[in-house]
Amino acid sequence: MGKYYTQTPWSGGVYERMIGLTKGALKKAIGRKLLWEREFVTLTVEIEGILNTRPLTYLNFDDYRVIGPIDFISPYVLLDIPTNEDIIQDEFRLHPLNTKGKLVNYWSNILKTLDVFWEIWKNEYLSSLRERTQREIVSPKRMEKRTPRRDEIVLLNEPGLPRGMWKLVKIQELNTGMDGRIRSVMVQTPNGKLLKRPINLLYSLEVEEEDSEEIRTTTTKEEPIALRTRGAQKACELIKSSTTTKNLLLITTVFSLFLLVFSTENCKWISGIPFSFPQKWNCDDQFTANFTINEIAIYTKTHVRIPALKCNNITHMVCTKAFLRISLSVESDQTTISAVTSHFCKVLVKKRLSGKDFQQISPNQWRTVNNVQYSYGWFGIRCQSTTNSLLQEGEIFIYDGKETVSDLDTIQHCLIQSGKCITNTSIVLWNETEAVSNCLYRKIGNYQARVFDTHIIVDELQMAFTFKSNETIDSRN
């Protein structure tokens, strides 16, 4: 019977740690960028190649053949990934791949993100390899319990290595210092060149030899002078006595709890307050009931984006006051924003497309250029208004076919089928036919399912679906 790992974070620590490193590096590599689905899928596949080509152990040092996870899937396959410069772009822009230049830019952006992921993930992965052998923490530095061995194959961390490349070296000579500890090593590269490198650049492979655990040595450390004084020794004795007292108290507490549990199991509830433990749910009847095996299609809700337009009028009213042109003043200066009719909004769109009367003030906003007009009379107050039209392009998002969300205005109270939404300050237009015809569901795939009378179980997805009462199910292709 094969070994089964429960679905808990503390089971299968190797791959759980690898998943954590990959997620952290991926978040740092992407940053605040928004990726298209095809970009994210491409990036995920490339990252999968990086993880599967990492060296687990070596097969033969003479030909430098290493074994990685990819060799258990497709032996002797090569996943060469091109290299590029490390540049991060935070801005998200629409770029349909309809020209050669855009296709090359799309490919280059994926490579840049992969380069960032490689640098972050490689450093964290090498650190995790070192944590497996560094168990002691000696402030302010860590001390390695495992010493390097002659003829051992290790990873050498060299700066500037291309993405997906790992450098294996063989330890030829151990160089010790005046204190007898190993300070540096002489390593041999695949081309036979000898290099002298410090031991902090060496990392053991993820899968070591069987006898590597037996060759681990415990390093001894010399006590600092501050710990050999009389005051420090007295403090150490107090700490030891306090630790002994705490240990005795802990043993007494554990023994008391054991007696309490033992007496509780044998207690017949003659006195005290009885209570009952909850029983586990019995789900055997769910699996012994009659069912049929059918292939079903599973869909999930998805957002539908529809282009939309927003139109409004901006009225600037200036009121002046005059008395025989001797006293001139501005009484008020107000700006109001109001909605327009749907017909007038469509007229504005045609004018904007023809390039008349409109000036672009942002990538998705256009405005008419009517200058503010005002003058003074001879007596009393005179008011003059100047109106400019504002046109803005955006989108509306439909999720469940009932409520809508837009980056143009608040339109939750409007119906999708109407094709327009009038608010206090603007009008938003969209194609009602496109809004109704779009499917609000995305197909996940076809799966084998066990169909019961009241529910459906999909073992592959570990999901279950129940039928609502008094609801008709319409099956369509």
Mind explaining what this structure looks like?
There is one protein chain. With 477 residues, the chain is of the alpha+beta class. The protein has helices spanning 13-30, 37-52, 70-73, 100-131, 230-266, 284-288, 342-354, 432-437; strands spanning 57-60, 65-67, 136-138, 141-143, 153-156, 168-176, 182-188, 194-198, 202-204, 292-301, 304-323, 327-339, 358-362, 365-368, 379-398, 404-406, 420-422, 427-430, 441-451, 455-458, 463-466. Strands 11, 12, 13, 14, 15, 16, 17 and 18 form an 8-stranded antiparallel β-sheet that branches. A 5-stranded antiparallel β-sheet has the order 8-7-6-5-9. A hairpin with a 2-residue loop joins strand 13 and strand 14. Helix 1 (13-30) packs across helix 4 (100-131) and helix 2 (37-52) packs across helix 4. The relative contact order is 0.08.
Features:
single chain; 477 residues; alpha+beta; SH3 type barrels; 4 domains; eight-stranded antiparallel β-sheet; five-stranded antiparallel β-sheet; 21 strands; 27% helix; DUF5641 domain-containing protein
The biggest sheet, with number of strands, parallel, antiparallel or mixed sense and barrel status, is: 8 strands, antiparallel
Structural class by secondary-structure content: alpha+beta
For the terminal residues, how far apart are their CA atoms?
42 Å
Question: Outline, from the CA principal axes?
Answer: elongated
Strand content: 25-35%
Task: Provide the residue-averaged pLDDT.
Answer: 71
H/I helix tally: 8
User: Over all CA atoms, what is the radius of gyration?
Assistant: 37 Å
Oligomer: single chain
Name the helicity range. 25-40%
Low-confidence stretches: 81-95, 133-144, 212-223, 473-477
* Whole-number count of domains: 4
Which series of helices and strands comes N to C?
HHEEHHEEEEEEEHHEEEHEEEEEEHEEE
How many extended strands? 21
